[in-house]
Amino acid sequence: MYEAAVFYSFGAVLVLSGLLVITARNPVHGVLFLVLAFFTAAAIWLLLRAEFLAIALVVVYVGAVMVLFLFVVMMLDINLERIREGFWKNLWLALAVGLIMVAEMVFVIAGRYFDVTASTPRVLPPDYSNTRELGRILYTDYAFAFEIAAVVLLVAIIAAISLTVRSRKDSRYQDPAAQVRARREDRVRLVSMPSEKE
Fold it and tell me: Which candidate, 119, 98, 123, places its Cα nearest to that of 110?
């Protein structure tokens, strides 16, 4: 009973923070609400006894990806009025995609509740480790999909770097060859000055 109450409270916070992500007027506030959503999802993973996934969610997404998002949102000069111009025009498409996603989730949950074989709990051995089981499934059954995801992420990183690299005139670059050729006479000038007399 206590575990169900904690689950539903975390679920309510997760749904509320997810709604605030897409309705926040300030992009920085939207990113912070997304951080809250990730922390709440990690707490739900802990309730489901998937400790590795919870820690990975906090470390990878909150510790790296969301900090990067926050810096990008704060450093970019985002024109909020221009972003809101196409909101009403694309609202019907967004509602259709949202309804399709809700229908898919309902079908998945309904299949779990109406299937007798899926509802019976599986007895786990005493030395069971969800981290080891996750690694075994990931690198055996889903190895090809894992490699495809790695290639897609690599292409996304290269595309992001190539899209943002610009040559600026006021940037200063170091020339190692010029630094090696530097001599003391070119950098230091000795000036002989008479000593001061009282």
Answer: 119
